[in-house]
């Protein structure tokens, strides 16, 4: 019989005790969420609504916070509203925190059920959590010797880590100088301490395991495809002047070398010299990442800047969804992806996708996407022209039947069932 507050049909996995690392989300105060952030937030929301015996762990400037489900609900609500309240003296004295992060850490200290200095983590977990809890880290953050050894030495049952990709090691030229070594260290720690590894795609599993085999024994792992969070399109959230009147194209993703936005600028400049009587606008929607200044300088010095090419940061999820419903196509020339969420989101709204031939995209979307090698820029130009002409036939002229995307339920079912084996 289900206990009080437990839904009928609740599985053994859902009744287990879980400690979910939420450090990455706590650091995102005042920032747009990345793809990995969204995965961690999906786990946060699943814990709040479906896992009655779950807690959240956050590393701060002064140690660690432990959140119960009420505290996790506060974190989720504050991420949505951006309202963290006032900072406090501790946060203002901490090094390396900007103003939003100061307010977030102060608020989360107030919301925490307990907290401790860094050396006391094992004791806090042993005193506060039930025996045989599982520690889950899905954000590539807080993967440290201190955390893993403290968790292992407490009452922890299993350690489960989701590895999204091995891009910092496979494509170091697209990362900050310190990123490859930092990721190598995180990967090594995951390999040494994890009882189970999760991956969003077969491609990411193969790439990560290839590096892990060079570091020692590889923990057992399983592919657990990511879900998609349903977002209500909201055209009223599109800022004035952003939505073009005619056909237009979108590129969605952090502005950094890996997303390869400069390829699209080269493409648009090439098209501007060709047969296009009227160049369709290109809207690049993404927060600045590493090397963004260099990339944006190249955009700003292009003759198409502010005319055929535009870059927007900070658009809401509702605005992005509304733009996808109206766009002639999504362009995705990324160099590498562990999963690649923008094409899934685009296809779910009937928006055609032109993408580089990424293994993870093929794994998720099959032949629903038009794949064109990055070396074949003339084929990209032709594909954009075809979609532009189709869009002139009227609203929805080039729309695909919406791709039926998976929600998160199957992801959590696979992940938690595997964790409990």
Automatic annotation (TrEMBL):
* Keywords annotated in UniProt: Transferase
Checking InterPro entries in the record gives: Glyco_trans_1
User: Which molecular function terms from Gene Ontology are attached?
Assistant: glycosyltransferase activity
Q: Does the keyword Cell membrane apply?
A: no
- Tell me which residues make up the Glycosyl transferase family domain: 245-369
* Protein name as catalogued: Glycosyl transferases group 1
